[in-house]
Amino acid sequence: MMNLPTPWVMAPMADVTHACFRDLVAQWGGCGLYYTEILNARIVASSRPEKDPYCDAGLLDRPRACQIVGDDPAVVAKAFEKLQALGRFDAYDFNLGCCCGMPARYGWGAALLRRPHRVREILREARRVLEGPLLVKMRIPDGPEDTAKRWAELLHECGVDAVVLHARYSGDLFKRPARWGVLKRWKRILTMPLIGNGDVFSPQDAVRMMEETGCDGVMIGRAALMRPWIFSDLYRFRSAGTLPTPPDVAPMVGQYGLLLRQWMPQQEAVRRFRRFAFWICQNYSYGAHYYHRSCRAGNLEAMVETLQGFLSRDVLSDYPVRPFMM
């Protein structure tokens, strides 16, 4: 397994964790591994990933991991092989955790946890072509008491270097609290590093997850969308026990708009900014109003200016940051 500069990992999230967002996060530091969005194995295997904006590399986002989703061993292997040839990625992840959207429609992601024999075939093929670290991001598999042990054996047999475990079952979605006790049990069973994921809404939560479960790292998803600087806060909190003064959010919104204009066509930039605004606005009591008003502003420049106006007059809430719009 690669040595990460910090044990804090940014989750792969559709429509958000592209190169622009990763570079925004990276300016504050503290993140140990930056993930791409989820990449469809069929598309990557049948196209030129060097031309695909989903496979872009940022300027600051290292080390960088790509994540593939699919169910055909040959196609997944070919996709990983193409991504490896780009030379942009430091680690490679196979998705066994997504339980909605496109992966769920095709029976990929977490649905593959019901097909361990197919997972074994996929991971063996992936390991055959990959020289770099192979990770698996997964949810908790359903099954009898020895299920965790059998999955640990499968992952070890296939040469997986680390596991990211979202401590929920597929059926949980985000409706119930993450099961941190399962992380603790899996840490005792696994022979490779374990990165915990689920219900980390503050730097204090991340440190507590490591202390309570013994996991080797923590992946942060929704809280990183709401506060892109959370990894810097986490690094400071763990080393000094205090939190720094948060950045001024309004200028950050303008900076992100500029990044989008530099990297993307106008229509795609607008779509991506709306998704960004959806999460940033959840830091504020009147965030739903701010979000809808900014989305109605029209073009990217007007959306940025409208949102900046609202946020410059409001006060950022304290941690923990719990989303109220989903």
State the domain count: 2
Q: Give the integer mean of the pLDDT values.
A: 95
Specify the CATH class of the largest domain.
Alpha Beta
Distance between the termini: 34 Å
Order of strands across the main sheet: 1-8-7-6-5-4-3-2
In DSSP terms (H or I, runs of 4 or more residues), the helix count works out at 14
Coarse shape: globular
CATH topology of the largest domain: TIM Barrel
- Taking all Cα atoms into account, the compactness measure Rg is 19 Å
Hey, roughly how much beta strand do the residues contain? 5-15%
- The appropriate CATH architecture of the largest domain is Alpha-Beta Barrel
Structural class: alpha/beta
Q: How many strand segments? A: 8
CATH superfamily of the largest domain: Aldolase class I
Major sheet summary line: 8 strands, parallel
The helix/strand series, from N terminus to C terminus, equals EHEHEHEHHEHEHEHEHHHHHH
Helix content: 40-55%
Assembly of the depicted chains: single chain
Low-confidence segments:
none
